[in-house]
Amino acid sequence: MLQKIGFQPGINKQITETGAEGQWVDCDNVRFRYGTPEKIGGWNQLGTQNENELTGAGRGLHHFINSLSRKYAIIGTNRILYAFSGGVFYDIHPIESTTTLTSAFSTTNGSPTVTLTYSSAHNLVSGDILLMDNFTSITNSNFSASDFNDKKFMVASTPTNTTATITMPSNESGSGATTSGGIRIQKYYTVGPAVQAKGFGWGLGSWGGEAAGAITTTLNGALLDDTAGTGGSGTSITLTSTTNFPSSGTNFIQVGNEEISYTGVSGNNLTGITRAVRNSTRSAHSNGATVTNSSDYVAWGEAASGDLVLEPGMWSLDNFGDKAICLIHDGACFQWDSSLSNATDTRATIISGAPTASRHMLVSTPDRHLVFFGTETTIGDTSTQDDMFIRFSDQEDINTYTPTATNTAGTQRLADGSQIRGAIRGRDAIYVWTDTALFTQRFVGQPFTFAFAQVGTNCGLVGQNACVEVDGSAYWMSENGFFRYAGKLESLPCLVEDFVFDSINLESGNQMVSAGLNNLFGEVMWFYPETGSSVVNRMVCYNYFDSTAQRPVWTVGSLARTMWRDSAVFGKPHATEYDASTDTSFDVVGNTEGRTSYYEHETGTDQNRNGTISAIAANILSGDFDITQRIVGNQMTGIADFRGDGEFIMKIRRFIPDFISQTGDTRVTLNLRNFPNDTAASSALGPFTITSSTSKVDTRARARAIALKIENTSTSQSWKLGTFRLDTQPDGRR
């Protein structure tokens, strides 16, 4: 007889498929709405065709509307800061330095390499971005001035402290280029690496190369094979730059395979040096050799004092009225005025008076203070950066940070934790997370400006972007669970918790985790890298609309987004996707950092990237159903009842599909098995193609247990499940 198959909403991966009778156990690109599964909406790539991809990995996204009612998205990658408006991306990245080179441009026949020669130390590293212009003429070369003017290039290498190379798309066919006039080169502020690296234990990275994202510079002078410093004398080593090199205590650098300790920093000199430490061997090193800060590394045979985290290049983005406020993670803070008539032709500039090294930033509302987290105790001295220190500006003044009796600037140091991980605005307070705790920061006015209170312990934030706020509630991911705060701390019950935390790559990816809010469907999503991946490739989602205390609604999937913002400004959610596999970009010649695509979500049924339409493959799989026989008056009737114990073989004669809505075709598969450890896919019945006119599907199958799978595989397909019915009866084994 026909019987309805009922399922509880959400995915349950905490039990086996056999134990999950009447539940869903897996899905991809599916959401629940009003308790019913459906395929998620499509997405469309934004930007001008063939000029719609961004250099590097998207690591910051903020939306706002300025006083002229113009909508902006500020997008920060690990290389470049962009403003998006009117369907166009504008490069607004701040310039760190400008240099004019005279006749310092050379090429070699048969090579794509261009060598730039500086008159003094350039302080460049591989991956830096250079903007070139003022080329007047190039002779003896197939390259012309138009190949370089107003073009951005990625530094390929720095052979010495006064030379750097870039790579052209083609080889030099001339005898070797010469130039005339002064070439202007503008260096972009460095943000950081595309991915995060983390290491533990013994022999942490001190031999055989350097880890991505480590602070590097070059020798300014040669080191001989002796105990002295540069130049063969003294106990100091001169570098091109000592910026961000630790300056207190005993620290270490790596030159080639040699480890060298030092005890102080004076200008560009490392003082109190000792050669060949940590079981390394002393050797000679030429002027311009690469120097890596290895203070957090240990040599073979030495135990690591702690974990080394090389965090990715990230941004904190907000707006102070018409001004976009943009902080480089562990770096300086910049402003970009969107109200200017030529705003898209201008660049972000550093905020005078503001801290120059901070982990995070936001603008408090409605009181309007610019707040820095994990910042400097002495403004302008990066060596004083304290990961637990908070500093905020005077009210309505982003350039004043020194507290006085007549302003509201101030500071605060939090006590619980080792670093501030992130912060977001809430309905009546700022939520501030360390790696172990949650604090609230409330505006109370003078003389204290803000009141701080610890409201949670053992609930630290996994990474800077792993938190969102909606309707007065904060949701976040910690390193061991999901939490909510709405006046009190709650641990979110999660039926996919083991699946997520057993597979998430927190060893090298905690800062890669980002949260997103899709307020159109009541969803909070977390995007994360799974084990074996250094880039985001998985998603877990909590539906706060449909969830109850008895049944939390969670889904999982392969949607990979590095940043996500809801529909409040643009009417649809926007998100970034990072593709590390490609090295090409319209924006930067020689890009080796991959590229980011920018999407509008919840549009149509398919995905559109670079004008190519492809299907969004969605599927959902139920747990196993088995049967028992209905008993009437102590007699078995031969009528099957679902939710049995697997004692009886069932005969499946037909099923009646039911979809609340359906676009195109949908596929239905019945996975059959007799024992829990059987491979269901090897005994599948189907897939059957279901159209809007399919009334029933006749089958001939026997099994102890069946599982239902719904999916689509082609373009222009969408579905929302109704109530399926199966025609079954108890039967013996054939």
Can you offer a commentary on this structure?
Strands 5, 6, 50, 51, 53, 54 and 55 form a seven-stranded mixed beta sheet that branches. Among the domains are: 2-41 and 618-731, Jelly Rolls, CATH 2.60.120; 95-188, Beta Barrel (Elongation Factor Tu (Ef-tu), domain 3), CATH 2.40.30; 462-571. With 734 residues, the protein is mainly beta. β39 (430-434) and β40 (437-445) form a beta hairpin. It contains one helix and 66 strands. It is 1% helix and 44% strand. The relative contact order is 0.15.
Please specify the SSE layout and strand pairing.
Blueprint: E1 2-4, E2 24-28, E3 30-33, E4 36-39, E5 43-45, E6 53-55, E7 58-65, E8 71-77, E9 81-85, E10 88-91, E11 95-102, E12 105-107, E13 113-117, E14 129-133, E15 137-139, E16 151-154, E17 157-160, E18 163-167, E19 178-180, E20 182-188, E21 197-199, E22 216-218, E23 236-238, E24 251-255, E25 258-262, E26 264-266, E27 269-271, E28 290-293, E29 308-310, E30 315-320, E31 323-328, E32 333-337, E33 349-350, E34 360-363, E35 370-373, E36 389-392, E37 410-413, E38 420-425, E39 430-434, E40 437-445, E41 449-457, E42 467-470, E43 473-477, E44 482-485, E45 489-491, H1 497-503, E46 514-518, E47 523-528, E48 538-543, E49 553-557, E50 563-565, E51 574-579, E52 588-589, E53 595-601, E54 607-609, E55 612-614, E56 618-622, E57 627-632, E58 635-642, E59 649-656, E60 659-663, E61 666-673, E62 684-690, E63 697-703, E64 705-712, E65 718-721, E66 725-731
Parallel strand pairs: 5-54, 16-52
Antiparallel strand pairs: 1-66, 2-56, 3-4, 5-53, 6-53, 7-8, 8-9, 9-10, 11-20, 12-13, 13-18, 14-16, 14-20, 15-19, 17-18, 21-29, 22-28, 23-27, 24-25, 24-28, 26-27, 30-31, 31-32, 32-33, 34-35, 35-36, 36-37, 38-39, 39-40, 40-41, 42-43, 43-44, 44-45, 46-47, 47-48, 48-49, 50-51, 51-53, 54-55, 56-64, ...
